[in-house]
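Anyone able to model this chain together with zinc ion?
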Amino acid sequence: MKILDAEFVKGFIRMANDGWEQGWHERNGGNLSYRIRPEEVESVKENFEPRAWTPIGTTVPALGGEYFLVTGSGKFFRNCIIDPADSMCVIELDKAGENYRIVWGLVNGGRPTSELPSHLMNHEGKFLIDPKYRVIYHAHTTNIIALTFVLPLDDAVFTRELWEMATECPVVFPDGVGVVPWMVPGGRDIAVATSELMKKYDLAVWAHHGMFAAGENFDITFGLMHTAEKSAEILVKVLSMRPDKLQTITVQNFRDLARDFNVTLPEKFLYEK
Ligand code: 2HA
Ligand code: ZN
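re: yes, here you go
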């Protein structure tokens, strides 16, 4: 099969374009990766032309031998839909999870996303907890970024504020949201910090930068990013009208919601204010 005809490639491109249309991917901002299923690898293998092995910059032994579809470093999300073979690539990891090689894509040269260490360490952490996780998504979500200038950089505060702004939030991300303080992007340190939080959460905020989301498929992962960012937008609007809330969703409301929707909300987020 031609690789661009594969459903997982079409889904990846659609998600990248949806993110672009949301305004989360100015210039080369953001990156996306998908851990390809073995049967999907088989179906497109005839397109592969392996290039040289390159160090990942971190080690992900649990992901040895896996294949990923990832956006390219310096590539623009807005171009994924018109020139996917220039904008993205398939990489294969070696058995030790120390090196990768491009097997398809980036036809005009280039490397996988600058955030490859964060993506792969997040994939590994999620895989070890639940191998159903396949998508890691980094976006420059405007309203979440704005909130990192005015809210304490604290998991409990961000989680509670986002939960309060839209009733669906505690149901969509009942485990909450982690917050990484400002760090230099692209390296192993921020990858380690993010993947630690991703053991507990499906969402991690990067202060003054954006967000990472993890999920089983493109719909779930995009929907998670979209839900959190929309909640942040509502909070920005509320804070722009007045500094306090006249009424809100209460702790008792959250408990009632958790019971009826059959979700467990950690007590650390249900503090009295
Ligand atoms: O430019 O978003 O974090 C890609 C990025 C780096
Ligand atoms: Zn970024």
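Residues 28-31, 114-115, 138, 185 surround Dihydroxyacetone (ligand 1) (CB under 6 Å).
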